[in-house]
Amino acid sequence: MQGDASPPVRGLEVASLAQSLIIAGATLASFGVVSRYLLTDGTSYSAGK
């Protein structure tokens, strides 16, 4: 009897998708933090000026 030593393909697909979403989320979050810092760096773009 020989067993299949390879993991299920479906599990690898889900893990790969999860890793991609985590990387994309971290990239967007860091971009948002930098953008917020740059936009609030002592400059105010209010309509009254």
Element layout with pairings:
Layout lengths: L8 H31 L10
Write up this protein.
- By secondary structure, the protein is mostly helical.
- The chain is 63% helix and 0% strand.
- The chain has 1 helix and no strands.
- The longest helix is centred in the middle third of the chain and has 31 residues, at 9-39.
- The mean pLDDT is 81.
Question: Any key phrases for this structure?
Answer:
49 residues, mainly alpha, 63% helix
What's the tally of helices? 1
Biggest sheet record: none
Tell me the radius of gyration. Answer: 22 Å
Low-confidence stretches: none
Summary of the model, kept short:
With 49 residues, the chain is mostly helical. It is built from one helix and no strands.
